[in-house]
Specification:
By secondary structure, the protein is mainly β. It has one helix and eleven strands. The relative contact order is 0.21.
Amino acid sequence: MKVSPDLYPSEHDAANPQRLRLPDGIVGFEDYKSFELLGVPDQFPFLWMRLHGPTDTLDFVVIEPGGLIPDYELELFDEDAAALGLADSNDAMVLTIVTVRHGSNATATVNLVGPVVVNRRTGLARQCILANYARYSAHHPLVENSTAETQT
């Protein structure tokens, strides 16, 4: 199933944080079975994904890649679409996890290979490896480096 990573909220998005179900967790955090999306108005397009585990919470920065990542076309395996109960691609919300590396060459990347896909109607979510994963990187630069030196 092809999924449109749209930035526009749908009628299924809640104004207040809603606890979303993540039965399989995410890679490395399989015991964290639910999360909330928290938005801070002056941090748009960044959102906070607060994972809830057995004894604590973890926060990840995520974005909806639509409109930010040119030509990002998601294709889910049929098994993932079925597990999420997605009958229509408009029911899918796509979240990519942002990683910031600090240092002299600070960079921010997004994982385009393994997004978290949420069924907007049911609140069921799953981290999915895309069927067309070979087209993308798990370390896609969020901002292209425009300070490349020119040779003379």
